[in-house]
Amino acid sequence: MGFAELLEEAGGFGRYQWLHVTLISLPGLMMASQNLLNNFVSGSPAHHCSLPTNQSSRYNLSHYQVDDKQLLRAFIPMDSSGSRLDRCRRFVEPQWQLLAANSSANVSQIPTEGCLDGWAYDRSEFLSTTVSEWDLVCGLRPLKQMIQTIYMGGVLTGAIVYGGLSDRYGRRSVLIWSYLQLGILGCSSAFLPSYSTYCAFRFLSGMAVSGVILNGVSLKVEWIPTKQRTLVGTLTSFFFTFGQMILAGLAYWLRDWRKLQLVVCLPQFLFFSYSWWFSESARWLVLNRRSEDALKCLHRVARVNGKKDIEDTLTLEVLHSHMKKEMDSSRSTFTAYDLLRTRQMRRISICLLVVWFSTSFAYYGLAMDLQKFGVSIYQIQLIFGAVDFPAKLVALGMLSYLGRRVSQATCLFISALVIFANILVPADMQTVRTTLACLGKGFTSASFTTVYLYTGELYPTVLRQTGMGFVSTMARVGSMAAPAVLILDEVLPALPSLVYGGAAVFASVFACFLPETLNKPLPDTIEDVEENGSETNLAPLQPEEGVALKEGVVTTEGVALKELKEAEGSGLNAL
């Protein structure tokens, strides 16, 4: 049907497709490093106020027989928990009487002051981070999370800017530029001297990450035959999972934020160097009246796949006859307003906005606060990456047997319950807290897998890409808001978890109002969506009519455009 038939004639899923999918998927290993980099680049080492210089020389401490760690008690008060030194205050004058073994002095009345001489940092977990280099602690602590929020703002901006540019200039051109932009700006970030310039470069890097992900997925699925797209999309999504585990290993090995920043961005130059080999999307070329270029790309793919004889039979006339319906439909214009204009479309869009926001909000709320579990941050990152493997498999099973709506609502609701349960677990029960956190991360990951597929099935063909861009924007907003909410733990330690869990519960309710799409035909038009929403039971999926080849002339009797967009939707879980 349409372009899918041409792909089969050009070798189907042949040698070119294997190379194409592999080379485009490889950067996924580094995309996890970009999204979760702030966990390690801006890790918060244990710290306390620096001691006033030469204070100990003014006193004879030989009769106290204390080491350096005990000596700190004379300069630094204990925090409210009484289990560790205060991170932001010190005594105005040294309290040497506190070093005595039987000291029972009341320290609550002793005057304290801020860290006038800066801070001293523990170097056992991190050798250097942005926090220790620019003193993003105490009153400046919110600036640590602001780095991630600014980065996610760049991801949101990039989705808007590079989405429009790819429609105008092509997927391949924008993808190549995005690799180069991320390589240059990411590596340059490792040498920046100030917080403000680092934030600016992270914003621009986030834009490039959007360009890589969105155009990489589009260029990948548009060269894959329909039958292989779901499987390929699912398998290639594991590159991101592996990337989370690679990040843990690199961060443990380097432990210096500048080295880590440089190492995770250098591979972008490799990706840039081979990206020139990619062929532009033939679909995009045809729809933009560049049929000659599309034909050259198809001939090239056929040659790589060993189908050299197709060059004589695949001509411009055959290409146009296959793509006639797509070319005709490209003349119709739909806007984001059509997502809200009618009743059923409005219900679907509002519910999906909430689901996308809450899923991303809860996911990054868990993934960006690894230090609160009291376990090695490198170990918890490795576990969080590994838990995505069973989570994706569970999601696929639920989608096949329980349906989309039940799966979506269940994943969100269970993730909320797990987040709430972790609030009640005492801080010293680290094994239980870590286990619950992994379960929450797994179910939010499964919710992501579900919502990508579900969204593609809910929107009609004529608005599927517009709808995906519209609702996924809320995911970027959620990922921006998640780090900022972590600051609320200064008001109440449990408050961020309450907000994350509450958002997930709220979204699970909205998910219940979405129509079920399991084994249902994909809608082609807005009218199809309105009719399906008003029916109690939709008709079972019917086979589509095929394509007849008669004397070298192709007649399309099916819905070629529908097939095209259906295939694109099925590959969205590659993100």
Automatic annotation (TrEMBL):
It comes from the Eukaryota. Keywords: Membrane, Transmembrane, Transmembrane helix. Residues 98-519 form the Major facilitator superfamily (MFS) profile domain. One of its GO terms (cellular component) is basal plasma membrane. GO terms for molecular function: transmembrane transporter activity. Its main location: membrane. It is found in: Basal cell membrane. The chain crosses the membrane at residues 146-165, 174-194, 200-219, 231-254, 260-279, 348-366, 378-402, 409-427, 494-514. SUPFAM superfamilies: MFS general substrate transporter. This is Solute carrier family 22 member 6. It comes from Champsocephalus gunnari.
